[in-house]
């Protein structure tokens, strides 16, 4: 077992629309991989397969050496294998409180399934102070998600992933709606993952942000991997030019 | 700090605004009844009657509250009530066993709920359409197997009659069942993993799925819960009247929905009020008796019911918008 995630010839289509056509993709231990590509290239589909939201039609996938059966794989199994995902959509329920959103799917309960609300709220308070850095600004564990700002929501989604101490953290466009200050926090978080010996897959449109924290870049275009680059071998300038090439070629063909 | 405390106190108050409005409305409805017909509403008998009739619709309203919290609807429960009532009485007549009759009857509710849930999840039919179809299908089915004939059963000769139809002191047992199940459902919805999954599905189905909630399984279970409540309502009805009749449950659909809406549960899903449904059931369930006692014609019932629904839903919506 020398790879954390190994995908071989993965195919996936939705109602006849092909999203992935034979992806070979891997993530090593203690590696930060930046996933790059245009809108609709298949980045989100790829990570949702790893996190158990979508199944795949063809190919093989191994996580920590465990062969994944696409029919049985689920978000729960991904969580148990140490895969945590922060989705572009944030996966937060607006009308529910912060503490419910942190623990949804992994509630602290007694044997009969009743929630230990006190414990969940205490943990949420800790998460807010230690991981999110919210202090006395009218946001508490009982706040509904709809009362939070975009950056705060991002903070909740990321802190949730951090709290459950994953071996692989997947971040889908985490810096999209964020201020400069908040972007710095996210990048620091990724550096933190690296320092702790964990791995990360990071999707972003913003190459300038992603470049310094990544070990490797993988470019996807229309369901296929079109390039893999080690950061040591490619400068930010060169990487941008590479990507523009793919974007242009897809525009020309269309 | 002072400001923060004030702020949180204000928050607490506005959190309960909806409930306070509902209480004011309930008190004024009953207050009006007391003024218009004091000879009826200052005596215990009418309340005893409410305590034995309201729980039958109230139990279904509790089940429906879960369905609404999940962002779905169920229109089939009145027919389920009739089918389960028929299965209950005919099993009892054939075998003489109350326990067997209870099991078969509740099982029929489970099966109806499972079919509803499967139509909605696996096939993907909108719940309003799937359960509308089921509503006709089940009513037709129970008419076919019963030949459309009512049945009278000597349930009052069994010990179970004490548990399902008589009074405990001056309190009708139906209301004890209703209170017990209300408390249980409150904890199930707001203090249990299952209820949390129901609320998340109603709020943001994709988020629930991405966080590992088995959306289809929870949905099927909620429709089964609704089916069981309809069955139980059918059983209680059979006990109360010692009769099963083929149109059992007809007329309940709008009242049950009204009870949930008056109580503050919305159709949008993701939020619900169990205690609201409990109170709403008594408000809606006592209208007809109160209006008739006041000497008004039955036509007024629908009119007043409409006013109450619109007034309460307007208040609930405004309170939520301000939050």
Describe this structure in words.
The complex is a heterodimer of chains A (254) and B (323). By secondary structure, chain A is an alpha/beta fold. In chain A, 35% of the residues lie in helices and 26% in strands. Chain A has a domain at 3-88 and 166-253: 3-Layer(aba) Sandwich (Rossmann fold). Chain A is built from 8 helices and 10 strands. Chain A has a 6-stranded mixed sheet, with helices on both faces. In chain A, strands 2-1-4-5 form a 4-stranded antiparallel sheet, with helices on one face. In chain A, a hairpin with a 2-residue loop joins strand 4 (58-63) and strand 5 (66-67). In chain A, helix 4 (117-132) packs across helix 5. The model of chain A has no long low-confidence stretch (mean pLDDT 86). Chain B has a domain at 39-249. Helices cover 78% and strands 2% of the residues of chain B. In chain B, helix 4 (44-69) packs across helix 14 and helix 9 crosses helix 10 (193-203). Chain B is globular. Mean pLDDT of chain B is 92; it is low at 1-6. Chain A binds chain B through residues 51-53, 74-76, 79, 85, 87, 89-96, 100, 104-107, 109, 113-115, 117, 136, 138, and chain B through 4, 7, 187, 191-194, 196-197, 199-200, 203-204, 206-214, 270-271.
Can I get a quick summary?
With 254 residues, chain A is α/β, with parallel strands linked by helices. Chain A has 8 helices and 10 strands.
Largest sheet of chain B: 2 strands, antiparallel
- Find the structural class of chain B using helix and strand composition: mainly alpha
CATH C-level class of the domain at 3-88 and 166-253 in chain A is: Alpha Beta
- The CATH architecture of the domain at 3-88 and 166-253 in chain A can be given as 3-Layer(aba) Sandwich
Largest interface by residue count? A-B, 29 and 24 residues
Oligomer: heterodimer
Mean pLDDT reading of chain A? 86
- Rg of chain A is 19 Å
- Helix run count of chain B: 15
Which spans of chain B of ≥5 residues are poorly predicted at pLDDT below 50? 1-6
CA radius of gyration of chain B is 20 Å
Query: What fold name stands as the CATH topology of the domain at 3-88 and 166-253 in chain A?
Result: Rossmann fold
Strand content of chain B: under 5%
Which stretches of chain A of 5+ consecutive residues score pLDDT under 50? none
- What is the strand tally of chain A? 10
**Distance between the first and last residues' Cα of chain B:** 21 Å
Total strands of chain B: 4
Helix percent band of chain A: 25-40%
């Amino acid at each position: 077992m020398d790879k954390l995630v190994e995908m071989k010839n993965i195919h996936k289509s939705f109602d006849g629309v092909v999203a992935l056509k034979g992806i070979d993709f891997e993530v090593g231990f203690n590696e930060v991989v930046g996933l790059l590509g245009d809108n609709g290239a298949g980045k989100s589909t790829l990570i949702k397969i790893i996190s158990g939201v979508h199944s795949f039609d063809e190919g093989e996938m191994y996580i920590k050496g465990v062969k994944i059966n696409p029919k049985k794989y689920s978000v729960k199994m991904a969580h148990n294998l140490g895969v945590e995902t922060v989705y572009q959509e944030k996966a937060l329920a607006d009308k529910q409180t912060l503490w419910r959103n942190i623990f949804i799917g992994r509630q602290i309960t007694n044997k009969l399934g009743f929630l230990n609300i006190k414990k969940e709220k205490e943990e949420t308070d800790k998460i807010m102070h230690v991981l999110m850095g919210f202090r006395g600004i009218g946001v508490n564990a009982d706040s509904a998600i709809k009362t939070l700002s975009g950056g705060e929501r991002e903070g909740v989604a990321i802190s949730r992933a951090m709290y459950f101490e994953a071996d692989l953290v997947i971040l889908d466009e985490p810096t999209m709606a964020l201020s400069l200050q908040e972007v710095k926090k996210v990048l620091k978080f990724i550096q933190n993952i690296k320092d702790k010996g964990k791995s990360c897959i990071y999707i972003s449109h913003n190459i300038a942000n992603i470049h310094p924290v990544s070990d490797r870049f993988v470019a996807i275009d229309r369901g296929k991997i079109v390039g893999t680059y080690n950061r040591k071998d490619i400068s930010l300038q060169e990487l941008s030019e590479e990507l523009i090439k793919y974007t242009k070629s897809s525009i020309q063909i269309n | 700090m002072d400001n923060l405390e004030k702020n949180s106190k204000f928050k607490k108050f506005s959190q309960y605004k909806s409930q306070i409005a509902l209480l004011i409305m309930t008190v004024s409805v009953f207050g009006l009844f007391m003024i218009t017909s004091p000879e009826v509403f200052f005596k215990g008998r009418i309340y005893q009657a409410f305590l034995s009739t309201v729980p039958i619709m109230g139990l279904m309203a509790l089940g429906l509250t879960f369905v609404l919290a999940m962002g779905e609807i169920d229109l089939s429960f009145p027919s389920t009530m009739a089918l389960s009532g028929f299965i209950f009485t005919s099993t009892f007549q054939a075998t003489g066993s109350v326990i067997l009759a209870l099991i078969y009857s509740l099982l029929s509710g489970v099966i109806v709920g499972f079919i509803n849930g499967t139509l909605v999840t696996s096939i993907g039919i909108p719940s309003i359409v799937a359960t509308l179809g089921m509503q006709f299908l089940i009513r037709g089915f129970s008419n076919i197997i019963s030949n459309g004939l009512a049945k009278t059963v000597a349930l009052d000769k069994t010990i179970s009659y004490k548990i399902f139809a008589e009074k405990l002191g001056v309190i009708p047992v139906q209301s004890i069942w209703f209170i017990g199940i209300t408390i249980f459902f409150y904890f199930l919805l707001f203090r249990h993993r299952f209820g949390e999954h129901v609320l998340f599905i109603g709020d943001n189905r994709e988020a629930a799925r991405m966080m590992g909630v088995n959306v289809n399984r929870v949905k099927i279970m909620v429709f089964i819960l609704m089916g069981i409540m309809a069955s139980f309502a059918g059983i209680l009805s059979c006990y109360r009247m010692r009769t099963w009749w083929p149109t059992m449950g007809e007329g309940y659909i709008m009242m049950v929905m009204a009870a949930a809406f008056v109580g503050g549960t919305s159709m949008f899903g993701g939020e619900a009020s169990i205690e609201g449904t409990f109170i709403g059931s008594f408000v809606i369930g006592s209208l007809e008796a109160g209006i008739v006692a006041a000497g008004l014609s039955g036509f007024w019932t629908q009119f007043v019911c409409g006013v109450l629904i619109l007034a309460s839903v307007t208040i609930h919506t405004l309170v939520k918008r301000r939050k």
